[in-house]
Design a protein that fits this description.
The strands form 2 sheets. The protein has a 7-stranded mixed beta sheet, sandwiched between helices. The protein has a two-stranded antiparallel sheet with strand order 1-2. The longest helix is centred in the C-terminal third of the chain and has 14 residues. The protein is α/β, with parallel strands linked by helices. The protein has a single domain, classed as Rossmann fold. It is globular, with a radius of gyration of 16 Å. The structure holds guanosine-5'-triphosphate and magnesium ion. Guanosine-5'-triphosphate binds next to helix 1.
Length: 214
């Protein structure tokens, strides 16, 4: 049993790895809402999930891009799953050159009955790459709710932060600047948890304006 970890909108009392899957056949049988993390390889999906669950190494992290090659399901508070997806561009299973979102991820996004939304991470330093633009468009086309979040906030200074959030907003066609988070400095986790819980509860996922520094 873990010590409870408190965030503004949630107290984490349990976080457990349930299973890995490489096809839809491997999805968890337990019917709970799912919120999944997607983004280019190395963007910080697994690290952010550890930070959100108050864990050090429940989710495997590595400096080698392409570490996560399957979907991994983590059950939180016995209430919902957080899902770690393979890095875009490294999804081994049926990855199509033509389309940055792999077949396997696409199938999951299109067909999962329990997926409530995707958190799409963009490295704040890169300001939204063509791969990010293409992937977010592919997700939108499936109708799955998607929230864009900027990762590795600790890697930029204040002026780069403002400039790159604006770039991400423009390139990915968002209503507001994305939330910026840091798994290393544990910044932005409270508002991100609020968004995740909104998705779990079936509310709309949308980038909200919270001032310039978001
Ligand atoms: N400075 C900084 N580094 C980070 C942050 N988040 C992740 N990293 C580092 O970025 C690298 C990749 O992190 P991962 O969490 O493995 O990234 P991922 O998106 O899961 O990567 P794949 O599994 O390959 O798709 C690791 O070396 C992390 O330590 C952050 O907020 N700040
Ligand atoms: Mg990973």
């Amino acid at each position: 049993m873990m010590n409870p970890v408190k965030f503004g909108p949630i107290e984490i009392t349990s976080a457990e790895f349930v299973k890995s899957a490489v096809s839809l056949k491997g999805l968890p049988e337990e019917r709970l809402p799912q919120v999944a993390f997607l983004g280019r390889s190395n963007v910080g999906k697994s690290s952010l999930m550890n930070a959100l669950m108050g864990q050090k190494s429940l989710v495997k992290v590595s400096s080698t891009p392409g570490k996560t090659r399957e979907m991994n399901f983590f059950k939180v508070n016995n209430r919902f799953f957080l899902v770690d997806l393979p890095g875009v561009g490294f999804a081994k299973v049926g990855f199509k050159k033509r389309d940055e979102m792999g077949d396997f991820i696409r199938e999951y996004v299109e067909k999962s009955k329990d997926l409530r939304g995707l958190i799409y991470l963009v490295d704040i330093r890169h300001g939204g790459t063509p791969i990010d633009v293409e992937t977010v468009e592919s997700i939108r086309a499936t109708g799955c709710p998607v929230l864009v979040v900027a990762s590795k906030k600790d890697k930029v200074n204040q002026s780069e932060l403002a400039k790159n959030l604006r770039l991400i907003q423009q390139r990915l066609d968002l209503d507001a600047k994305p939330l910026a988070v840091s798994a290393v400095k544990k910044v932005g986790l409270d508002p991100l948890w609020q968004d995740i819980l909104d998705a779990v509860n079936g509310k709309e996922l949308v980038e909200k304006s919270h001032g310039d520094d978001r």
